Amino acid sequence: xxxxxxxxxxxxxxxxxxxxxxxxxxxxxxxxxxxxxxxxxxxxxxxxxxxxxxxxxxxxxxxxxxxxxxxxxxxxxxxxxxxxxxxxxxxxxxxxxxxxxxxxxxxxxxxxxxxxxxxxxxxxxxxxxxxxxxxxxxxxxxxxxxxxxxxxxxxxxxxxxxxxxxxxxxxxxxxxxxxxxxxxxxxxxxxxxxxxxxxxxxxxxxxxxxxxxxxxxxxxxxxxxxx
Length: 227
Ligand code: DC
Hints:
Blueprint: E1 10-14, H1 21-32, E2 35-38, H2 39-52, H3 60-66, E3 72-77, E4 80-85, H4 97-107, H5 110-122, E5 129-133, H6 136-140, E6 147-151, H7 154-163, H8 170-179, E7 192-195, H9 201-214
Parallel strand pairs: 1-5, 1-6, 2-5, 6-7
Antiparallel strand pairs: 3-4
Helix pairs in contact: 1-9, 2-4, 2-5, 4-8
Bound molecules: 2'-deoxycytidine-5'-monophosphate.
């Protein structure tokens, strides 16, 4: 059940850091009445625990070993995904500088990806959803026809992060995310690229809805009446 399992469908949204994909995913989810799943938060939660335990994020063996000793629970609260680590909610610490610095290394560990991809696929049992990340269209739901890749120039992305008051080396993180061996960031087969550098958010949402409409989202099995 990858992407169109049972009667539930998934919209996959991938793209580099600060491309606007989270905002687009959130607005689309609200507009289309879908569960919104932020897969980056899951990689951040594992990283938060790596940092908290003082594990070197570049030590793949130590990071993988930690997985046997921790409960990463992914759930849904209302229409949003949640993640806890041994019952604790990392909250705003998911976006701390320490996590920003280490997350790409932790996300490159194959065992981490294996555990989290299984949890991401399982969320489709909860209902129609929109999931954003780096490998959603290529690995998590390769069979869904609803694949969007949200991009923006590095300069624009750096400015967006700075405007949020965050110190986040987006370019560096993207190079690591794109260069890794396991499930690198890339434009998946069949994904449409939307470059948001010169678009405002409303325009991006309209472009995404138009693309989904063309791909049959509103005529799919179990669809709500067209908007
Ligand atoms: O979307 P984000 O910036 O919060 O993601 C944080 C990091 O997690 C990102 O640098 C790479 C990793 N990630 C990933 O490898 N695969 C995903 N599906 C989502 C995020």
